[in-house]
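Notes to self, Sugar lactone lactonase YvrE:
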Amino acid sequence: MKRTTIASTLLAATAVSTVGAAVGTATPALADQDRDHGRAASYLLTGDPVDAANPAGSKFEGIGADERRGRFYVSEVTGGEIHRGKVGTARTREWLAGHGTDGRFTARGITVDDQGRVYVAGGPNGIGDGGVDNGRPDLWVYSKEGKRLAALRTPGNDVFLNDVAIGPDGAAYFTDSNDAQIFRVAKGKQGWNVRLWADASDKITRETGFNLGGIVLTRDKKAFVVAQGNVGTLWRFAVKSGKVTQVKTGSADLVNADGLVLQGSRLTVVRNFSKQIATLRLSADGRQTKLIRQQATSPDRVLTTAKELRGQILYVDSKFDEQVASGPYEVVADPTR
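result:
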């Protein structure tokens, strides 16, 4: 099996090679409102100034949706801040500080459970630039009020936690973009714990770049569908056994598959650097798909993860295509604009 690491790849993508580059500081106007639903067409994120502490500006990736409370949470790659927004309010705010807060220097995927608890994947937070264990947490759990409930290390080494979804048992399941592994996080009698739930390294070949990423629970709640973006493959992990099989996707091009959104039988696949949105029809058991369409996204954005909130899909504009990121920093409802 080919062994590579993506920690240095991602950090290189957010590095700055031009000295003296600057970010525009003008404040954009508030987003237009959808008068029928009171929803914003875009949401403004607060970015960091470009300085020695933030040489690449602000770059973003994950988004989690709290349907019950009408809130969403966005992770910042550059520093690990967590931002929170509300349906219909075009400005978000920094909810949790980064740059070492709770040992968090970067953050990736986010999800929210029925109790409003927020689960944050740390990407390479625990391995850093060189892929070497640095003792930092790999993931965090927070209450809806922002109280830290857990900061955990995963078993094993070289772990890059990418995305997270809530299972039918109420536990959170985190994908690993380095190895074909999924970790389960739950609160037990002895407190919060994390364990390796599924290891598919004998079935899924580890390739260069991002391996397991986006994850969704199937309509029948018997499996997870997980994207392997570097090769454009979808995998089905059975909830009861963790057994993995490849999802039949026909000739659909899913290279750079990142965030996944499932609405009934419609699966939306965000293909970040390909700048495409693939829409497929997914069977209830998650075993096969049929391509409905491929749609080009805005050429000026690299969209990563997306989530549905109150009937609207929200997409994160990552700024991964900019050496030094400049505002406006946004979450958008229309991926083509």
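- Residues 273 and 304 are 8 Å apart (CA to CA).
- The longest strand covers residues 191-199.
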